[in-house]
Amino acid sequence: MGGLVFGAIYALVALGYTMVYGVLQLINFAHSEVFMYGTFAVAWVFILLHGTESASWSLGEAVPVLLVALIAAMALSAGVALALERFAYRPLMKKNAPKLIALISAIGASFALAEAMGLRDRFAEVFGLDDNLADYVAPGKARDVYSSPVTIREHDLFTIGGYTLSDVDLVIILAALLMMVALDQFVRRTRFGRGIRAVAQDPESAALMGVNPTRVVQLTFLIGGLMAGAAATLYMMKVGVTRQNAGFILGVKAFTAAVMGGIGNLRGALLGGLILGVMENWGSALFGQNWKDVVAFVLLVLILLVRPSGLLGESLGKARA
Amino acid sequence: MTNPVSNALRSVGDAWDGVLEGYKRQNIVVRIAVLVLIALFFYGLPILRPPLITTNEIDFGGVMFQVAAFALVAVGLNIVIGYAGLLDLGYVGFYATGAYTTGVLTSQHGSWPFFLALPVAIAVTMVTGVILGAPTLRVRGDYLAIVTLGFGEIIRICVKNIEWLGASAGIKDIPHPNTIGPKAEPPFEPGGLFEIPRVEWDGLVPHLDKDHPVHFLVFGATNAIPYYWLILTALVLVLVGDRLVKNSRVGRAWEATREDEDAAELMGVPTFKFKLMAFALGAAIGGLSGSFYASGQGGYISPDSFPLLLSMLFVAAVIVGGSGNRWGAIAGGALVAYLPERFREFADYRLLFFGLALTVLAVWRPEGLLPPRRTRRAKAAAAEIEALEEGELDDELEETRNV
Predict the structure, then answer these.
(1) Where are the beta strands (DSSP E) in B99-158?
(2) Contact B282, B129 (CB under 8 A)
(3) What residues of chain B lie within 8 A of the CB of A310, using their CB?
(4) Does A256 contact B150 at a Cβ distance shorter than 8 Å?
(5) Do B316 and A108 touch (CB under 8 A)?
(6) B29 in a domain, yes or no?
(7) Which tens digit of pLDDT belongs to each residue from A40-68?
(8) Is A304 part of a structural domain of the chain?
């Protein structure tokens, strides 16, 4: 079941990649850092509301704090995503720069964001903030693992065919599915959703029909950021620790999930994420933990060989109204 | 984006373009002389140790070796990305393959001399390139990017988990290349053919420093400069080859494939074959650089030497420099390797600034530092057409007004 849980988280992060790709045809490499900032927001909220003593709560006790954490994570992630759009992408879009250059801009931004988080104790020093890092991070070692003080105890609910499902797992899977469905409906039903699909299909015609492409791109980054924040909260529920480079490998996995399902396709991201999570889990059970990532990538290659445009190779723009 | 800073940056860029244009107008003798002078300057760089450029915190020769290794990789990757237009995010896999082949043959399971292992390493990497390319080159664009990314990661995890390749402990004691001239036998016999003193700068006044001489062509742990010369020579040879290939039928086929794959296929270019060739050639150069890296000063490699991040840096090097232009690739590779080392004083902040610099550079000069001639021509043509269209529109407007 661990596979499904991580699959759901991959899928949520993958949404950010797939939406930006659908609209801009651009791999937003810095999206993994957007996710990473979300995980830190969760850790900070736990510390602010609970203090730095560690405790072990059951899911019921943690719910109010988790909700606040969810809001904070979504807000911070969305903020970072919007800033990214404003400073790393919009100037390039205006100049009609080649796609590859936007990729470099993204890689640079990704570096800078991860490093900024790695140096957070220095910045806190500069601004004279005594934030709650001291108990967790030795001076000058802000790159170390940063954990939320509250671990959430899992209660097993039931067992199916040897797989045990805990309440935390269930909440994560349900929450992820709920957000997916909500987003899917948003893109299909609302005016903004129609705008996104229009720009994905043909930015110029969309602009002529009165859609503001800049606004749509902003909205896309905003939604991607919100989803990454939600994924960060779920990730912290399950894992409980983060690092300044926590986003990197998860980002690569999420991008793999997006490509596997057919990049630019929301439902594809969901399918890709779940398949990736489950297969990874089986793979590590079969070949050992060390080979987990190899299983994920070999699977990706195999799927792309059979279906070169992903499992549901249909783009955001072509999604039926 | 019209503020003083961006305007100033743009004028620097335009001035640089002017220098390039001036160079193009010279005749062939002058151009070759300029190239030779530039090459001599780079061979002498670690001995001249010019102020401002020289790194204080870390051995300058070692930095220059890394810079040259990066430039070599960038030239190889430029064939794949710049010429053939295949976005390869797993290039570090080839770099690792070259390094590990050398490691296995010279230290882990054999004791071959370095220069015997080198061609084998290149061949093995080339074969790896074909093996990876044959199934994956059917997918295109960003799908290819993620498949190659996966490949880079697969190689790293494999070497990390296979005992035969040293697992996570890595391979150590990879032998140095053979010394030319008398063998070095410390503490009495420094070896080498002769000694070269290095230049030390006191402010802006140079003087010779005889305490830190370079023993000519002694490859050992004490001095990185001979390695730098070795890799620089390899770079020059690769550049000559690169020029020959680029100007041949193969190079034109690559460009056709990059610009429009379907059109090229319809015109009778077997695009798959040429893409595979670009992949294999690029891989071989990556393997060459990896091989040098393995037998460099430290003589030690481990899976951690080849993180996925390195792949991103390679791609960044090519594109920052101007994808499709071999000099651009060299400049980009040198810059990407050099900047973080130069600013080691700000040890903790250097990667942050590096990231910011990449973004700023991308935004400031989207076509790279040295864009290829074709891009510049296309840009000029586009500007001309635009100007014409606007002019026509203005004329029409005036006509309507007059009526």
Answers:
(1) none
(2) yes
(3) 143
(4) yes
(5) yes
(6) no
(7) 999 888 888 887 777 888 888 888 889 99
(8) no
